[in-house]
Amino acid sequence: MAHVLVTGAAGLLGSHLTDFLILQGHKVTGLDNLSGGYLENVNSQCNFIRLDLTNASAVDAIMKVFQFDYVYHFAAYAAVGLSPFIRNFNYQNNVLASVNLINGCIKYDVRKFIFASSMDVYGEQSPPFEEDMVPRPTDPYGIAKYAVEMDLQNAGEQFGLNYTIIRPHNVIGPRQNIWDRYRNVAGIWIRKAMTGDPLTIYGDGTQRRAFSDVKYYMDPFYQLMRNELTDCETINIGADQDYSINELAEIVQNVAHQKMGIRPRLEYLEPRNEVHKMWCNHDKAVRLLDFVDSTDLYKLVEETWEWAKDIKPKPVKDMDYEIEKNMYSYWRKSG
Ligand SMILES: NC(=O)c1ccc[n+]([C@@H]2O[C@H](COP(=O)([O-])OP(=O)(O)OC[C@H]3O[C@@H](n4cnc5c(N)ncnc54)[C@H](O)[C@@H]3O)[C@@H](O)[C@H]2O)c1
After folding, report:
1. In terms of residue numbers, what domain contains 88?
2. Is there a domain that residue 331 lies in?
3. Does a structural domain hold residue 325?
4. Which pLDDT tens digit goes with each residue over 54-82?
5. Burial class (CB within 10 angstroms; exposed 0-12, middle 13-18, buried 19+) of 148
6. How many domains is the chain built from?
């Protein structure tokens, strides 16, 4: 039995991984500041610590006391499109928070640090993205993820810290934060459809992404702490089948119609500054992690809908913007 720290344990990936690791017989400490996740997502058998990872001395103290064997670092604020307007917040929570943990892993001899990076590091290149492409992130969120990737490489070379960088993309499933107005298109639409609001599309909806079901990630994530072939590697993980945003909207419309007898209308809004086509090649995950993606997008939206209708709705929060200049009309506070 290993003692594993999962950060972001109240969020989508972290909460599912916590459940999985506990089922495998490991001791899990879950850490989260509950800024984007919810306590009800946290497994009752995990030792939960509410903590903000930007607090360097507290992170150090916890790592010193608990002497974790493995760390899965999933805590982040992953709002790609908003990140240019919250640059300080983005780098605090996505870079410095990670660095505090990396320091602890080096000091207290953690056996492996597993970092959830993102496909966003690739930026404007031709998909499918492969791991050996040089990252060219085009927004502060992607820049933050790439900075941590590079920092880990240094920590590996300088201190022998063992790590794996995993680059997921567009994961959907129960426990997703569907009340965040800035991220997770499928979650936002499920919330809007349930309240009778139109599904908002930024631009013409021809952007393409590959959406994947959270449940197919857990065993591959678990392999990362057991499989030496993944040491110091970077691995893409996610679905192979890409869809346009318009196609995803149609699926949400169909699920809404099936569940409520109403087809939400679509509302096209000004485009965002975003990469048009993004999906990845997953041969390496298949080879090293026996990864099999069996995502059925319709069923996944349906399953997430079923979960969402049974839980207590949460308030939809506004972020404090650091920059309001050039803010998109739909995110303007007065708009
Ligand atoms: N879900 C996806 O599609 C996707 C795609 C690519 C990468 N990722 C990465 O995977 C990881 C997990 O994503 P997710 O979808 O589960 O996100 P999530 O928002 O559901 O969970 C992240 C959790 O981190 C917590 N958190 C944020 N800042 C924190 C801080 N400073 N201290 C402590 N806790 C903090 C939040 O409260 C939240 O519970 C993230 O690093 C994300 O960038 C996710």
Report:
1. 3-171+211-236
2. no
3. no
4. 999 999 999 999 999 999 999 999 999 99
5. buried
6. 2
Q: How far is CA 285 from the centre of its chain?
A: 17
Contact 7, 32 (CB under 8 A): yes
Centroid of chain to Cα 204: 25
What is the atom index within ligand 1 of the atom nearest the CA of 93?
A: 31
Whether residue 249 is found in the same domain as residue 127 = no
- Residue 141 appears among annotated catalytic residues: yes
Q: Helices 56-66 & 97-107, crossing angle to 10 degrees? A: 30
Straight-line distance from the first to the last Cα atom of the chain, in angstroms, rounded to the nearest whole number: 53
Q: Is 311 left (phi over 0), alpha (psi -120 to 50) or beta?
A: beta
Rounded average pLDDT over 193-219: 97
Of 72, 141, 146, 243, the active-site residue reads: 141
Q: Which CATH number is 81's domain given?
A: 3.40.50.720
Q: Is residue 89 domain-shared with residue 191, that is, in the same domain?
A: no
Residue ranges with strand state E in the chain: 3-7, 27-32, 47-50, 70-73, 112-116, 163-167, 171-172, 199-202, 208-209, 212-213, 233-236, 243-244, 266-269, 277-278
The C-alpha angle 286, 289, 293, rounded to 5 degrees, equals: 50
Q: Is 158 exposed, middle or buried (0-12, 13-18, 19+ CB in 10 A)?
A: exposed
Domain identity same for 77 and 194: no
- How is residue 332 written in tokens? 């303007």
> Could you tell me which of 71, 74, 140 has the C-alpha nearest to residue 108?
71
| 223 close to 278: Cβ distance less than 8 angstroms | no
- In sequence order, what are the residues at sequence separation of 6 or more whose Cβ sits closer than 8 angstroms to the Cβ of residue 54? 92, 93, 96, 97, 100
CA of 263 to the centre of ligand 1 (A): 31
One domain, residues 12 and 46: yes
Whole-number Å distance, alpha carbon 56 to ligand 1 midpoint, is 19
Distance from the alpha carbon of residue 37 to the mean position of ligand 1, in angstroms: 8
Per-residue model confidence as pLDDT tens digits over 30-47: 999 999 999 999 999 999
pLDDT bucket at 333, cuts 50 / 70 / 90: confident
Query: Using an 8 Å Cβ cutoff, are 280 and 126 in contact?
Result: no
